[in-house]
Write a structure and sequence with these properties.
By secondary structure, the protein is an alpha/beta fold. It is 48% helix and 13% strand. A five-stranded parallel beta sheet has the order 7-6-5-11-12, with helices on both faces. A four-stranded antiparallel beta sheet has the order 1-2-4-3. The mean pLDDT is 95.
Length: 553
């Protein structure tokens, strides 16, 4: 990336300035390079002079001048200037910029890919909603974030495994089974109520009907008796299939569906992990419960592993699950994507990972905030008490998978978001996903029209692309590798959605100011070449986001 080369130039300038005695000798901090907010300040800017003025015992502006004199020549850089109070600004050479078009086109669908993290295995676990009901709209945000992050991490060399943790054990699953049996009995005319704290949603009736269609009355027991536990498992399996289909409808497909029951089964890690904690002195028994003495590993309080009724807590199974991730399966990096309501669970999971031989520093937990569904300015109300939820499938069916993904990705995960259903359906520039996809379709249309007129980019001279809008578009294309690096470093796929809109805007500005097919054959060929590169970058960006790239709209 040219940004990295600019960073190296600044480092070399500092070493040369210190060697010449223009700046005193000292160990300098790491050089950072950013993009100025205003185009007139260049393409890249380094604030190193401001950061080292104290070490140098010089004014920042003097440090900047000294560095500027020692910046080595570089074919990509046309000019280096100093701006108050002490910035080094770098301007890219217009000819170098246009020479980058051909490599973008040559890279095609692999544009901006690197092997930076080749050989490293990463696991991303996300959504993992209880299989006791449909995926709701809030879960969809985690799905969009997780699957996009997986795509981007693969693009920079990671071997990525996407996983859904199926909570198919515990109290809620038992309540689900009893609810299903009540609904199943009702289908045979029995006057039974669903259990207290059961699941009142109509989806439970649909599941009961599915069981009846497949098995008839095979699971009907004499009145007053409890249902067969196998019935509950059949219901869980059916619900997991429904969840899988809903997520697939959004373009989310997992490599592994991991069963919580497998942790507890014979040969599973749960018993061994508990014994490991005992041997290390991290287990205490009091008040009839079994505790992890996590205060000994830096936590503010101890945490219950096994309740007084003998049932393991979610925390206990989470420790066993992460032991399986780090130790048994040996992932180099583990990323959990959770709703913000799990924030209090973060530090104690890291403590548990460290206690059983995993690396807490290799565990990243990304939290995302709640989703408010709206139609225009009106909030879409829902009532959990009545079992009425807005499902992810409802949203996908109404606005489409592309808009669903784009809207979920656009805000940063730590921001609460409003999802406007009406806006997501608009076919206008107000709708960001439409705006971006229309840019791709318009490019495809222009290229097709040129082909019909026997015009092409063959033999194009990219140096003719000197117009401000042409240069701005190429410069925007060159940012994609940086964006992908930022997404991975910060676990922030919203940068990709922002970049997509900026790239589309750069194209639309170019289209407005620069006619592509003209009487000037040479200029037409050059602009078609630019469009081919823009099409590559737009398609690459949308594909990484899991969004389609239409050629017509």
């Amino acid at each position: 990336m040219i940004r990295d080369e600019i960073r190296t130039l600044v480092e070399q300038a500092l070493a040369a300035a210190q060697g010449a005695g223009d700046i005193p000798q000292f160990a300098a901090p790491e050089v950072t390079v950013e993009h100025p907010q205003r185009a007139e300040h260049g393409d890249f800017s380094a604030n190193l002079p401001l950061r080292i003025q104290g070490l140098a015992k010089m004014k920042a502006i003097e440090v900047a001048e000294a560095l500027r004199r020692h910046v080595p020549a570089h074919g990509a850089v046309s000019e280096v200037t100093v701006a108050p109070p002490g910035f080094l600004n770098f301007y890219l050479d217009a000819g170098w910029v246009t020479r980058q078009i051909a490599p973008i086109i040559a890279a095609g669908a692999d544009y901006a890919s690197t092997d930076q993290f080749a050989g490293q295995r990463a696991q991303i676990e996300y959504v993992s909603a209880n299989p006791t009901g449909p995926i709701h709209v809030g879960n969809g945000r985690g799905a969009a974030i997780g699957s996009t992050l997986a795509n981007v991490m693969r693009s920079v060399g990671y071997e990525v495994e996407q996983e859904y943790y199926v909570n198919d054990a515990g109290t809620q699953v038992a309540i689900f089974g009893r609810t299903l049996y009540a609904r199943y009995q009702q289908l045979f005319g029995r006057d039974v109520e669903i259990p207290e704290n059961g699941y009142p949603g109509e989806y439970m009736v649909a599941l009961a009907n599915a069981v009846k269609d497949q098995h008839g009355d095979a699971y009907l027991r004499p009145e007053g008796e409890d249902g067969d536990p196998e019935l509950g498992q059949i219901g869980i399996d059916l619900q997991v299939d429904s969840i899988r289909n809903d997520l697939s409808g959004m373009g989310v497909d997992y490599d592994v569906w991991f069963s919580e029951r497998s942790l507890m089964s014979e040969g599973g890690p749960y018993d061994g992990v508990l014994e490991m904690l005992r041997e290390q002195g991290y287990v205490a028994e009091r008040d009839g419960a079994v505790w992890f003495t996590s205060t000994e590993v830096g936590e503010s309080k101890d945490n219950v592993l096994i309740r007084s009724d003998g049932q393991p807590t979610y925390y206990a199974t989470d420790i066993a699950y992460h032991y399986d991730k780090f130790v048994t399966r040996g992932f180099d990096r583990v990323i959990d994507i959770w709703g913000a309501d799990h924030q209090g669970h973060v530090s104690r999971v890291k403590a548990g990972v460290g206690a059983v031989g995993g690396d807490p520093e290799a565990l990243d937990i990304l939290l995302y905030q709640l989703v408010t569904l709206k139609r225009g300015g009106e909030v879409v109300m829902l009532s959990k008490r009545a079992g009425e939820i807005v499902t992810l499938r409802d949203v996908i069916d109404e606005v489409g998978a592309d808009a669903t993904r784009f809207f979920f990705l656009s805000p940063s995960a730590n921001q609460a978001m409003d999802f406007d259903l009406d806006l997501a359906k608009k076919q206008s520039d107000e709708n960001p996903v439409y705006y971006v996809q229309y840019a791709h379709a318009r490019i495809a249309g222009i290229i097709d029209k040129a082909r019909e007129e026997s015009r092409s980019s063959e033999g194009a001279d990219a140096s003719l692309l000197t117009h401000e809008a042409e240069q701005a578009l190429v410069r925007k294309l060159l940012l994609l590798p940086e964006v992908l690096e930022t997404v991975v470093e910060d676990l922030a796929p919203h940068h990709l959605a922002h970049y997509a809109q900026e790239l589309a805007q750069a194209f639309h500005t170019f289209y407005t100011q620069c006619r592509v097919i003209t009487d000037d054959d040479a200029l037409t060929s050059a602009r078609l070449l630019l469009l081919e590169a823009a099409r590559v970058a737009l398609a690459r960006t949308l594909t990484l986001m899991g969004i389609s790239t239409p050629d017509q709209m």
